[in-house]
Amino acid sequence: MIIRAIRKEDDTHIATIIRRTLEEFHCNKQGTVYYDKNIRHISEFMNPPGSIYYVVEEDGQVVGGGGVYPTEGLPDDTVELVKLYLLPHTRGKGYGEQLIRECIKFAKQAGYSKVYLESMDELNGAVSLYKKLGFDYLTSPLGKSGHVYCKIWMSKDI
């Protein structure tokens, strides 16, 4: 398994992984990333300063990804952990934890002191991982992601 920065040729694979995962958990609803137009061109979207998107490769195949992005409306010291999804056969192998740690490492190097995320009850495996890694629940959302279906908000000091 390797983690590397996204390339343009990864866009279709990542968009498919995101959509299939949300369908798997019955979260393909308005107010989620499922309907974000930017996932079709995620390598371009995840391009501003202070952001990065990583893909996970297993045996030369893209099997997931995740990144950090300075979502509009977040405090200047905070970046959002975004679009973190893995194919089913890769879950439970530690890839998600390694990916999150790589995102946090980038966020620190970029000068952020907090990482924020949004999730859903249906993604309870991911939420358990976030808790294990020290993310704490918030009572309301930060920033303006537009993902109104997400009712779990968490953050971590880094």
TrEMBL record:
<dbReference type="Pfam" id="PF00583">
    <property type="entry name" value="Acetyltransf_1"/>
</dbReference>
<protein>
    <recommendedName>
        <fullName>N-acetyltransferase domain-containing protein</fullName>
    </recommendedName>
</protein>
<dbReference type="InterPro" id="IPR050769">
    <property type="entry name" value="NAT_camello-type"/>
</dbReference>
<dbReference type="InterPro" id="IPR016181">
    <property type="entry name" value="Acyl_CoA_acyltransferase"/>
</dbReference>
<feature type="domain" description="N-acetyltransferase">
    <location>
        <begin position="1"/>
        <end position="158"/>
    </location>
</feature>
<dbReference type="InterPro" id="IPR000182">
    <property type="entry name" value="GNAT_dom"/>
</dbReference>
<dbReference type="GO" id="GO:0008080">
    <property type="term" value="F:N-acetyltransferase activity"/>
</dbReference>
<keyword id="KW-0808">Transferase</keyword>
